[in-house]
Amino acid sequence: RQRSTSFSTSSALRGYCCIGRLVDMVVVRGSGSYVWNDKNEKFLDFATGIGVTGTGHCHPKVVKAIQDQAANMIHAQVNISYHDRMLELMGKMLPIMPSVGGAGGGGASPLDSFFFWNSGAEAVEAAVKLARHATQRPNVIVFRGGYHGRTMGTMAMTTSKYIYRAGFGPLMPSVNVAPFPYCAHCRLPKESGAECCLAPLEDLELMLKQECHPSEVAAMVIEPVQGEGGYVPAPASYLRGLRALCDKHGILLVADEVQSGVARTGRMWAVEHAGIVPDVLVFAKGIASGMPLSGFATRAELSATQPAGSMGGTYAGNIISCAAACATLDVIQEEGLVANAKARGDQLSSGLKDIAAKLQSLNGGKAIVRDVRGPGLMVGLELTAAPGSGAATRLSKACLKRGMILLTTSTFETVRFIPALNISAKEMDEGLGIFSDAMHEVFG
Ligand code: PMP
């Protein structure tokens, strides 16, 4: 049955227009991989609140942890005292942080010191503060197409779309933007045999010679898989090159795993695919299944450089959010969700490639899909349609009409698949079926 595609909203919401949204629909309930709107229409949720409800909507163990904690204590302030749920969470995170030569329970991770905040942007800004103070250097290098948030500082670090920056300047100074290896748009001739991801690395080295002297660079901040920039994974050799470059110049490597972390890519952290350990790893979104919580892990010797009182915040590391995060990590472990993200991710990627191949043959051999990419359940499908043509939005709306929430991303025409980490094979097939029908409607 087709879902409604237009919804009437109250005039009180008019001032809310600066929040871009996929559809003016009112959702009222969520369970597992599904959400319901106020007309009791059911939707398969392939957006999970932008990669947040990794354990599915309202996982019973997460709900119980939140309810129990709310009955016991709702607010404890980190600048006043420790609280037990935060200590418990640190204990659970320590063994799953990345370590050299294989991570997630491998050797002990050097990332043994944790700070918590509310949002991803807040944690990224705090990571920049830590890097500046620890190195006593001013500059930050970020990567084209990256997204780090909408706050004053992170806005200057974000280049995925101009809408996040234009008109809000002057921006935070001392931010340099380096190229990001976007393989689907690689300009190197394939026959050259050159490893293309090394070209942006060479550009970066040139940047350190021409634009910003390494002795003035505090940190490089990179998403191991770009999220808002189009679900573009950085090749492992590129990330290894960055690690070596940072080591050479005493620059801190900050991995923004706000979207790619917490089992999303079929490993606990996306940096594990490259076998590198950043100096700071920022997490948020999936860590607490929907309760607001962010944070970073770093080495104790780096956190020790920060003056007491320079970090914190009224709600930073809220006790209920920490309880939800503890339950989330338990569910991920008990239900094998790292492995499920990999298995369902393989099912998803190969299903999407089949759909693309079928449409291409129906389309006289002309490709409609440029690229299907991304590890685990962080998969982007980029269309060949011209950027700005609106093809990805049409596709997303065609999915919505059929009862599936699917988001677009990037300035290139791309849709992104971020279902719950505990999605079943049957639910994945349902999603692939809906997506195939939507593709035929829009491009068939
Ligand atoms: N970094 C990355 C990689 C993100 O994807 C996001 C959110 N999309 C942020 C930072 C900002 O997080 P928040 O919206 O919680 O501030």
UniProtKB/TrEMBL annotation:
Output the Gene Ontology terms for molecular function: identical protein binding; pyridoxal phosphate binding; transaminase activity
| Signal sequence, start to end | none
Per its Swiss-Prot or TrEMBL entry, what cofactor is needed? pyridoxal 5'-phosphate
Q: Which PROSITE patterns match?
A: AA_TRANSFER_CLASS_3
- List keywords of the entry alphabetically: Aminotransferase, Pyridoxal phosphate, Transferase
Family statement:
Belongs to the class-III pyridoxal-phosphate-dependent aminotransferase family.
The record's listing under PANTHER family reads:
ACETYLORNITHINE AMINOTRANSFERASE, MITOCHONDRIAL (PTHR11986:SF79), AMINOTRANSFERASE CLASS III (PTHR11986)
The name this protein carries in UniProt is 4-aminobutyrate aminotransferase
* Native source species: Tribonema minus
